[in-house]
């Protein structure tokens, strides 16, 4: 990487440290020509493998774009979408894999989206899981109700104690 000050191609590393729990390395470099210092960062690329076999770098923006459609007309703002995309990325990185099939990205979206907005979740799940009948929706809504009842019961428990 060229020196940002004088464009010289050679530099030496004066310090390197792991950041993001070892998923990235930051290096402090010194230009061997002008002697000025700059910082570079090296990050493990999380690759998404598409059905065609082509891989592309995981993109939070893509997650946001995919979910935004399901959130149309819902009280979900851009901040909430960004946070959701961040949670999706963190949950995938936490599994420790370097490559993930694209359909598993969809799977990782379902959990956080369900917490964010039930209607958006149903829309997204209906496309992602290719719901083909009203029964698919009914079953999903029944599961959703049960999960909501369980989390409400948990909240009550926390308030009591
Ligand atoms: Zn330089």
From TrEMBL:
Name this protein carries in UniProt: Transcriptional repressor NrdR
InterPro entries listed in its UniProt record: ATP-cone_dom, NrdR-like_N, RNR_NrdR-like
Domain of life: Bacteria
Role played: Negatively regulates transcription of bacterial ribonucleotide reductase nrd genes and operons by binding to NrdR-boxes.
Cofactor(s) this protein requires: Zn(2+)
Family in the record: Belongs to the NrdR family.
Signal peptide: none
Source species: Amycolatopsis arida
The entry's keywords: ATP-binding, DNA-binding, Metal-binding, Nucleotide-binding, Repressor, Transcription, Transcription regulation, Zinc, Zinc-finger
GO biological process: negative regulation of DNA-templated transcription
Domain ATP-cone: 46-136
Cofactor notes: Binds 1 zinc ion.
Any Pfam family hit: Zn_ribbon_NrdR
HAMAP family linked: NrdR (MF_00440)
Lineage of producing organism: Bacteria, Bacillati, Actinomycetota, Actinomycetes, Pseudonocardiales
A molecular function (GO) term: ATP binding
Start and end residues, zinc fingers (unnamed): 3-34
């Amino acid at each position: 990487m060229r020196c940002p000050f004088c464009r010289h191609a050679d530099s030496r590393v004066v310090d390197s440290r792991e950041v993001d729990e070892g998923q990235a390395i930051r290096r402090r470099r010194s230009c061997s020509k002008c002697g000025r210092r700059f910082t570079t960062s090296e990050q493990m690329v999380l690759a998404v493998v598409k059905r065609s076999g082509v891989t592309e770098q995981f993109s939070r923006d893509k997650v946001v774009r995919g979910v935004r459609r399901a959130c149309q007309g819902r009280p979900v703002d851009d901040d909430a979408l960004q946070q959701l995309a961040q949670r999706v990325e963190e949950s995938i990185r936490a599994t420790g894999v370097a490559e993930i099939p694209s359909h598993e990205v969809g799977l990782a979206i379902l959990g956080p989206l369900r917490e964010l907005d039930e209607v958006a979740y149903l829309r997204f799940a209906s496309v992602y899981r290719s719901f083909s009948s009203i029964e698919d929706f009914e079953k999903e809504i029944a599961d959703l109700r049960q999960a909501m009842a369980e989390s409400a019961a948990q909240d009550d428990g926390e308030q009591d104690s």
